[in-house]
Amino acid sequence: MTDTTLNFLELPRVDPAKLSVEERVSSYREIYGTYVPKEASLQASRCLACGNPFCEWKCPVHNFIPNWLKLLEEGRLFEAAELSHRTNSLPEVCGRICPQDRLCEGACTLNEQFGAVSIGSIEKYITDEALKAGWRPDLSEVKPTGRRVAIVGAGPAGLGCADILVRNGVSAIVYDRHPRIGGLLTFGIPPFKLEKSVVETRREILEGMGVEFRLGVDVGRDIGFDELVASHDAVFMGTGTYRAVEGGFPGERLPGVHPALGYLISNINQQLGLASAEDWVDLRGKRVVVLGGGDTAMDCNRTALRQGAASVTCTYRRAEAELQGSRRDYKNSVEEGVQFVFNRQPLEIVGDGRVEGVRVAQTRLGSAMRRGRRVVEVVPGTDEILPADAVVIAFGFEASPPAWCAEHGIELHADGRIKVSTSTPFQTTHPRVFAGGDMVRGSDLVVTAVFEGREAARGILISLGLHEITPA
Ligand code: FAD
Ligand code: SF4
């Protein structure tokens, strides 16, 4: 076989084609295309196969990246898919929406001088193409243990947990209040980043592996948490974090002001045919101001553009360099026409019975530090009004622990996140209840939620005295 170790010298990084801006803003389709087989294999061949692969260390689930790149390069697609699933329950999702620039690709040895290997696009390619060609996880060696675990929440954490449990012969019954699986993957993240059919395909795979979904069931309302604890060997909680952070300034309750997640979900429901017309927040023709600079703000910006907003202005209280969300989504927002206003603090949403604008002031960095960053100060006398017909508030999320925690002796941190053990992974202070994902670490990423769900499943196996058979 030819030695391809120095391929990176000849072969530049090439990403799959992106839709033109006009095509993007006129539909909700995913904006990135996919490789043809030859391109995928050539791009995979750019990997140096580093002895100590930094990409693998930086990936929260420690994907065996150089190994599956090699398998793909050699045309061994099914083996690449099998290996990719050994560490990740949702590789096709992570390939699409992980912030690779600060994770695996940011750590790639080639990144600075030659352009990182396009790990995310290749990860997506491997699973998409393997599934299309008929590959399915092989559970033929799995022996049922007769044990049953209830999982509350069909988001990435719950799905990661279910994946590992069924691979170890434990029945996984997943409850979710929504009619579809995915948590924020379905009811949060817009389709131009992740089409809903991708999540539905994953549902078929998981059901084929034996995972049972009970959807449209709100635990605590339709079925008691105590009932789940009593009728299962263990319970995993992956209910996310949903309390929106408020601005605490006047005008937040004016008609025309929308919390980010409610806005995004209303549009997704409209796309999926799940919403009644009056629940749909349609910003067509409006001057929209989005407050915030994270991933959720970028998703709101780009949704408003696709709805046909007259203009979309996004304000952030820090500088461009301090944006905390994905650089890729910021860049896409700029390309698609969002106007950014940096170093502005919102002080008030103004309007007479309805939103008319946002009063903002300029900011500068103070000397005091908070959470490792210099605090932001308002510069006196710099107020101005940004005209708006609609305002979307995207300041992030705080923990929203379920009411049943207190009743079951499940302890919380002061900020409402669930406390978990380090000795038995992700065990709460109730010995038969485990937790993971955003409700444990705070609002974060899909890949970290998947990791915690999988680790919690390992904790459950240990607590049940079962040996984990697959994957390593
Ligand atoms: P969730 O995905 O929130 O799932 C929790 C599930 O629990 C939900 O389905 C909910 O219905 C269910 N549930 C809660 N309570 C109950 C109950 N009582 N009974 C039944 N069901 C219940 N991450 C990235 O990596 N890349 C991105 O590009 C990205 N973009 C994002 C964009 C937005 C708008 C948002 C809000 C988040 C984004 N994230 C992104 C973060 C990512 O989506 C989350 O970190 C991840 O989904 C957390 O997974 P989880 O399983 O912990 O919780
Ligand atoms: Fe990179 Fe995310 Fe894939 Fe890990 S899961 S290899 S961080 S894209």
Topology at a glance:
Layout: H1 7-10, H2 21-25, H3 37-44, H4 54-58, H5 65-73, H6 77-87, H7 91-97, H8 104-107, H9 111-114, H10 119-132, E1 148-152, H11 156-167, E2 171-176, H12 196-208, E3 212-215, H13 225-231, E4 234-237, E5 243-244, E6 257-259, H14 260-272, E7 287-291, H15 295-307, E8 311-315, H16 327-336, E9 339-341, E10 344-350, E11 357-370, E12 373-378, E13 384-387, E14 390-393, E15 397-398, H17 404-407, E16 433-435, H18 438-441, H19 446-463
Parallel strand pairs: 1-2, 1-4, 2-3, 4-16, 6-14, 7-8, 7-14, 8-9
Antiparallel strand pairs: 5-15, 10-11, 11-12, 11-13
The structure holds flavin-adenine dinucleotide (FAD) and iron/sulfur cluster.
CATH superfamily grouping of the largest domain: FAD/NAD(P)-binding domain
What's the count of strands?
Answer: 16
- Arithmetic mean of pLDDT: 95
Low-confidence regions: none
Strand content: 15-25%
Number of discrete domains: 3
Q: What is the fold named in CATH at topology level of the largest domain?
A: FAD/NAD(P)-binding domain
What is the spatial order of strands in the main beta sheet?
Answer: 3-2-1-4-16
The count of helical stretches stands at 19
- The oligomeric state is single chain
C-alpha geometry: globular
| Terminal-residue CA separation | 29 Å
CATH class of the largest domain: Alpha Beta
Specify the structural class: alpha/beta
Integer-rounded radius of gyration: 23 Å
Helix content: 25-40%
CATH architecture of the largest domain: 3-Layer(bba) Sandwich
Largest sheet: 5 strands, parallel
Bound molecules: flavin-adenine dinucleotide, iron/sulfur cluster
